[in-house]
Design goal:
The chain has 16 helices and two strands. By secondary structure, it is an all-alpha fold. The chain has a two-stranded antiparallel ribbon.
């Protein structure tokens, strides 16, 4: 999502230290359980041998820390909340992989594909619990009780949103037709909610006013929706040498993304059903993909998705601007937001 190399150097070591402390092995008999968690986090191989590679982009926690720094000048107090958001994100990924039957993630075998569904469910559950314990560590940073209560509440609300979004995503798989507004609702819950939680918590812990907190929350929401639309575009038109995914992967797997929904609706209004018929086929071949691309071109669905993305980008940047905050951390947020919604991977 976000090119995080400078942020990784600045925030990464403290964030990793905090998460490793939270997920530290409590006793030797539980080594395989915590080993599975460490594997998923990128800290160990399938034999639980420690790895020393950088595990991921940590987009959400880095946004949280940047915003805390922008509003208060200090990001260190927010480290436990950043860890909580990242752990909650990873809990959702473990469960999503089970529900979606995904054998790989980040180029590695998923937890369930290596150790089975029962263990993977349990690993996700305990990571969920550790995310909430991480919030309680804000007390050690002298964060006020009121702000900690807000953090707990927002994390709970976000988890509910994630589950609601996943329900809609799963339910869409069996629907011949998906309403565009309901699709936006799904991605708002499944993708944007956790990013909005991260940006809001950064402002809350930094001590921002209610109005400023709300602008940062809205910024995260718009940014999250834009991220997903960008993913939708790249899932069809992205260069596989850059994205690391097969060409037109979303079409081959018959995903109902924004460009596809726009094409289906446009064809329906024109009394056509070419794309709908193609999506109803059991197997999708190269010739089918070419026909799908032709329909998307005829319906202007690529351009439509780009216009929607442009709207989310503009509203995200507007919410940053109206905070009236102007410092290095805020400027970094603006730059990263622009780059993230123009990315090719």
């Amino acid at each position: 999502m976000i090119s995080a190399t400078p942020l990784a150097r600045k925030y990464g070591p403290q964030l990793e230290k905090e998460m490793r402390a939270i997920l530290a092995l409590p006793e030797e008999t539980l080594k395989p359980l915590y080993g599975m968690m460490h594997y998923h986090m990128g800290w160990a191989d399938p034999d639980f041998v420690p790895l020393h590679t950088y595990p991921g982009k940590h987009t959400r926690p880095f946004l949280l820390l940047l915003i805390c720094e922008a509003v208060s000048g200090d990001w260190h107090t927010a480290i436990p909340a950043a860890a909580a958001v990242e752990l909650l994100h990873n809990f959702s990924l473990i469960h999503d992989d089970i529900e979606d039957h995904s054998p790989t993630r980040r180029g590695r075998s998923t937890v369930w594909s290596l150790w089975g569904v029962p263990h993977a469910v349990n690993v996700g559950d305990i990571m969920f619990a550790h995310a909430y314990l991480a919030i309680s560590r804000l007390r050690e940073k002298d964060v006020s009780a009121d702000r900690i209560r807000v953090a707990f509440t927002r994390l709970n609300q976000t988890c509910i949103s994630l589950c609601q979004g996943q329900y809609l995503d799963l339910e869409f798989e069996d629907r011949a037709q998906v309403d565009m507004a309901l699709y936006v609702k799904m991605i708002e819950n499944k993708t944007a909610a956790l990013i909005a939680c991260a940006t809001e918590l950064g402002a809350v812990i930094g001590g921002a006013s209610h109005a400023i907190v709300e602008h940062y929350r809205q910024y995260g929401r718009e940014l999250g929706l834009g991220f997903q639309i960008m993913d939708d575009i790249l899932g069809i038109w992205g260069d596989p040498r850059i994205t690391g995914k097969p060409i037109c992967d979303d079409l081959r797997t018959k995903k109902k993304t924004l460009p596809v929904l726009h094409a289906l609706e446009t064809e329906r209004k024109r009394g056509k059903r070419t794309l709908r018929d193609l999506y109803s086929r059991q197997e999708i071949g190269d010739a089918d993909v070419e026909r799908m691309l032709a329909v998307l071109e005829e319906t202007g669905s690529h351009q439509y998705a780009r216009e929607v993305l442009s709207g989310y980008r503009a509203r995200a940047l507007e919410n940053l601007e109206v905070t009236g905050i102007d410092n290095q951390a805020q400027q970094t947020l603006v730059s990263l937001s622009r780059n993230a919604l123009d990315r090719e991977y």
